[in-house]
Amino acid sequence: MLSRTDAKIVLNEIMNLYPDARPTMRYENAFQLLMVVILSAQATDASIEKIQDKLFERYPSPEAVIESSIEEIETYINTIGLYHNKARYIFMSSQQLLDNFGGEVPSTRKELTSLTGIGPKSANIILSVAYGEAAFAVDTHVTRICKHHNIVDDDATAQDIEKRVTEILPPEKWGHAHQAMINFGREICKPRNPLCKNHPQLYAYLD
């Protein structure tokens, strides 16, 4: 595993490759983002993009969701993987928002992870994107990159990765780092035939 100094070099060079990295998710409020985050597990941005306008129009609020049914929600999202579970998560989390948070999406990690379908990664995305809070989400891209570049050990958990990166980078860089690593994972540090060696600056610590 790289030293903190060398790992910081790698992370900073990834961010330098994508200085303007921004979330690609389209949303107008925290509740829409909550639904998009629930839908995003094992789904592409393009597949969500195709269905989200009608979903948002039909379900502008938690109240609209619970006045519907899980079965009806499924009809709006049945082109998305795991749609049975996701429809249930949207319904149950909407009920919990109304019961526990006055219909508003909470802004703390503890409260967000109390919602059905929202784990630490999803909570960190909502905190960072919707509320501008310092949070670092660990997804499959982040995990692959950190292990491929020896920022963490191969057996590191998501919790280990979050702890390691947030100890290396200052809080104001956590959101940018996450978005840059998504782009880097999609375009360069791919699961198959990664192109990292084409960017020697990533290995500047070897000089």
TrEMBL record:
Q: Which residues are [4Fe-4S] cluster-binding?
A: 189, 196
**One of the Pfam families matching this protein, by short name:** HHH
- Reaction(s) this enzyme catalyzes, per UniProt: 2'-deoxyribonucleotide-(2'-deoxyribose 5'-phosphate)-2'-deoxyribonucleotide-DNA = a 3'-end 2'-deoxyribonucleotide-(2,3-dehydro-2,3-deoxyribose 5'-phosphate)-DNA + a 5'-end 5'-phospho-2'-deoxyribonucleoside-DNA + H(+)
Gene Ontology biological-process annotations: base-excision repair, AP site formation
What cofactors does the UniProt entry give for this protein?
A: [4Fe-4S] cluster
What InterPro entries would the database entry show? DNA_glycosylase (IPR011257), HhH-GPD_domain (IPR003265), HhH_base_excis_C (IPR023170), HhH_motif (IPR000445), Nth (IPR005759)
Write down the EC number.
4.2.99.18
Question: Which keywords label this protein?
Answer: 4Fe-4S, DNA damage, DNA repair, DNA-binding, Endonuclease, Glycosidase, Hydrolase, Iron, Iron-sulfur, Lyase, Metal-binding, Nuclease
Q: Which PANTHER family match?
A: A/G-SPECIFIC ADENINE GLYCOSYLASE/ENDONUCLEASE III (PTHR10359), ENDONUCLEASE III (PTHR10359:SF18)
Q: Which family does it belong to?
A: Belongs to the Nth/MutY family.
Q: What does this protein do?
A: DNA repair enzyme that has both DNA N-glycosylase activity and AP-lyase activity. The DNA N-glycosylase activity releases various damaged pyrimidines from DNA by cleaving the N-glycosidic bond, leaving an AP (apurinic/apyrimidinic) site. The AP-lyase activity cleaves the phosphodiester bond 3' to the AP site by a beta-elimination, leaving a 3'-terminal unsaturated sugar and a product with a terminal 5'-phosphate.
Protein name per Swiss-Prot or TrEMBL: Endonuclease III
Organism of origin is Ruoffia halotolerans
Q: According to the entry, what is the taxonomic lineage of the organism?
A: Bacteria, Bacillati, Bacillota, Bacilli, Lactobacillales
